[in-house]
Amino acid sequence: MSNKLLKRAIDRLEQFPKKEVEKLVRLQIAEADMLDAILEESPIGHLLLKNKIIRYVNTSFCTLLPTDRRYLRKNAEGKHIKDLVVDKEVLDYLVTLSEKNVREEKEFNFQLGSEVRTMLITHRIVETEEGDYLDINVRDITEEKRREARLRRSESLASMTTMAAGIAHEIKNPLAAMQIHIQLMHKAFQKKGVLNEEDASRYLDVIEEEIERLNRIAVDFLFAVRPVNIDLKLISVDEILSGLCDFISPEIESHGIKLIWNVEKYLPKLMMDKNHINQALLNIIQNAIHAMSNGGTLTLTVKNDGDYVLFSVEDTGCGIAEENLAKIFEPYFTTKETGTGLGLTNVYKIVKEHNGDISVESKVGVGTTFNIRLPVPTTERMQLDHIEEA
Length: 390
Description:
Strand content: 15-25%
Order of helices and strands: HHEEHHHEEEHHEHEEHEEHHEEH
Number of helices: 12
CATH superfamily of the largest domain: Histidine kinase-like ATPase, C-terminal domain
């Protein structure tokens, strides 16, 4: 029976025959028992709190988290949450959920027997006529985490295979160029017994350029395969943008490109590694400059986007063919005549290390837009909400 029908029935209870009342009560008891049985058999832990007092808890909750076994199931109802949960970290988190409007879900690792299990705690507020209840769910995500780890290892192996083939291809050209110019030097010595300064300088300049090219290939490769040493600090977006503007303005002007800034007034601080984020944005901007060899317009947009800040880099260049868009972040993929093809791979890696997302939209002959979304810390989001309300 729906809640509305039940309320109407209670309001008119005195008008019902005794047998009808008994039938209604038995029906409600049966429905409550059925719901209780379903929740009790659920592999997901359920806990219902009101002002930190337990109103309902099932067995799965008590077995998935460290709890006092004296208060299993019915014995726990009416007790304070601190009587049931014995792990301090979990207890502090649940108390925080009861006292503050915390949005994030949270993962906890526990030693259960001979293995470590990972539990995910989620929650929601349930509004009723009696007041607000806190509905807390606990789910064992250990197997999901293991599958994700296996998938990452598989993807990493595939990526390493692609990279190995890519770097083998990349180093062949500079090595061949060096070999050719060394052979030319040998032939000159054999023919004349001496090498004049002009020829020697020309040959050595080429060899030096190719050595530098090999060094760039090695540096980019090492960055792509090594874990990124991210140093996250709470940094204002303006600090990132001001340094970026000073750096790119001369190059943009020299290419006859018009620069447009669209920056929202109130932007929160973000947890960022300043050097790496600068590197990622600079790489995308330089790609945009190269795509506009005959000039054009570069538009940089920064704005709030829900729980994220959006960094958008839009150019009016040659664009990227649709069949290449899906491969744009793959190692050693490039449509340029020069370059290692690791630039956007490293940009993708940096953004992911910041728990962000990156996407690209493009149309040949029209231009390309790269969108980077970085998450806003909870404290900054609350301050921003306060500003928006004011």
